[in-house]
Amino acid sequence: MPTGEARQRGYTLAALMMIVTVLGIGLAAVAPLWSARIQRDREEELISRGFQYAEALRVFQKRFGRLPNRLEELDEVEPRSIRRLWDDPMTGDEGWAVIVEMPGRGLLALDSRTGQPLVPVDLDGDGQPDALPPAQPPEGGGRPVVGPIHGVKSRASGGAFHTLFDTDDYGDWEFTVELLQNAVAKPGPTGFPPRANALTLGRPFRYPPPGAAPSDGRPPGGGRPTDRPPGPMPNPEGKE
Fold first, then answer.
1. Is 232 inside a domain boundary?
2. Phi, psi of 98 (to 5 degrees)
3. Biggest alpha carbon distance in the chain?
4. pTM above the 0.70 mark?
């Protein structure tokens, strides 16, 4: 027959097992919520950084009369058009897909690391995907020349919590200089077009461009409102 001390050890073990079970159930319930929060933050960071690149492209074009052939030009050509080259928050690296104009094919997304189409395309009409001629790196090395660059998008794709440009696949969100130019071209209530930039587009703003309901805080193309105040977005990577 077990002694009192043995019974006490048994009760303690049973209590510990119950605590571990409850903690496991709690973690299993919280993990999806935490994962969803991280996903939402990354999507918001993608929107913020995407519009910062679009704004930098607009500034570069206005200053130099052309669009850059590499994203690095936004940082290398003085005066700089962007504070720094931001990583794609969905992939964790600087390898954005860049949107360029192909003669006879319109805008096409290329992998900035290789200069090849992000999605295989049929260039010669034979029904088979074709590769582009190898892009040449600039003098001194670096990423290949793929431009002129009209915009950026993430190389990754997947279902998003946010809806932007009428799609909830973040791989379809294209942040182009034309988007800002179209927004600037629309006059505001004062008769003058408001200045569209990365601090207003993609956040609550007073004069949304075509495609967003007036004063609803939606990004262009009908995105969902965000409760973030205007200003720099937080950096989940802890970088400047």
1. no
2. -105, 145
3. 93
4. no
